Amino acid sequence: MNNYKYDSFLVCEVVIGLFAVLVVLHTGLVVTFGNPQPPLSDSGYLVREMIAFRAGFTSLLLLIYLWCRLTNQKTGLVLTAIALISWVAFLEDFMLLENAFFMPELFSGKVLQFLRPIYLITIVYMTIEAQRREMVL
User: Fold this and answer.
1) Where are the domains of the chain?
2) What burial class does residue 103 get, using C-beta atoms within 10 Å of its C-beta: 0-12 exposed, 13-18 middle, 19+ buried?
3) What pTM was computed for the model?
4) pLDDT tens digit string along 68-87?
5) pLDDT digits (tens, 9 = 90+) for 12-25
6) What Å distances lie between residue 59 and 22, 38, 66, 103, 136, CA to CA?
7) 36-45: long-range contacts at Cβ-Cβ below 8 A with a sequence spacing of 24 or more?
């Protein structure tokens, strides 16, 4: 953990952690209480399943990142995978599922929509910094 002495990187980790907790919270709320808009077809059910899968997979990668950080291993590759999946998910949501994601009814969904661009920029910054630091080592 001595490789990451910069305050900006730690702030980014806090932002990423906050976003991850909110994603898990929002996904849990949607699964527990249901979406305010009932699915009209099988596609609505598939959208919910895809959201839950992506949230779980990204959370798993963030846990792997946390383990790498705590054991002082290189994190650049894990951050690259997280950033790639996050950006692909964002583009997929924007192009295919815009109504499901850009007009959320739950307050937690609105907060996530506000934090999502910040998260995407933050994860790219962290990836670039981690790759740069690991190249120096």
Assistant:
1) 7-136
2) exposed
3) 0.76
4) 989 989 989 999 998 998 88
5) 889 988 888 888 78
6) 11, 26, 10, 23, 29
7) 36/105, 36/106, 37/105
